[in-house]
Amino acid sequence: MKDDRGELDLTKQIEQLELENSKLKKRAQEAEGEMTIVKGIGMNSPEMRACQVRVKELNDSLAIALDINDNFQRQSVAMRKRTEEVEEDNKRLSQQISDYIKKYEDSFRKAGL
Predict the structure, then answer these.
(1) Domain span at residue 83?
(2) Against a cut of 0.85, is the pTM above it?
(3) Which of 5, 65, 74, 107 could covalently link to 12 via disulfide, CB atoms 3.0 to 4.6 Å apart?
């Protein structure tokens, strides 16, 4: 039977859209099925397991590095504090020496020093 309806016939357009819609639904279902298979295989594949092992190794390395950094930061603060104490001691010692030299300057000159 020949379809003599024109392109502007709404019933013909509806039938074409319904046919296209059913094809798209079928493709979507097939794609969902394939996606389910890929996800199932992907999570259990040797490559994925190797990647998971590598991620764990990297996380462990990161934890070690963060611990080392934390220890370094604490030691750095302690060293800065100690350096400041030594600098203050040096200033006081320098002042004491300067005061001592001024106090005995005349006697040093007489002694030829």
Answers:
(1) 46-113
(2) no
(3) 5
Number of domains composing the chain: 2
Q: Are 78 and 65 members of one domain?
A: yes
Determine the Cα–Cα distance for residues 30 and 36; give it in Å rounded to an integer: 10
Single-letter amino acid, residue 111: A
Residue 105 lies in a domain: yes
Residue with tokens 């357009």: 13
- pLDDT digit string, tens, across residues 10-63: 888 898 899 999 999 999 999 998 888 877 777 777 888 898 999 999 999 999
Q: Assess whether 40 and 50 both reside in one domain.
A: no
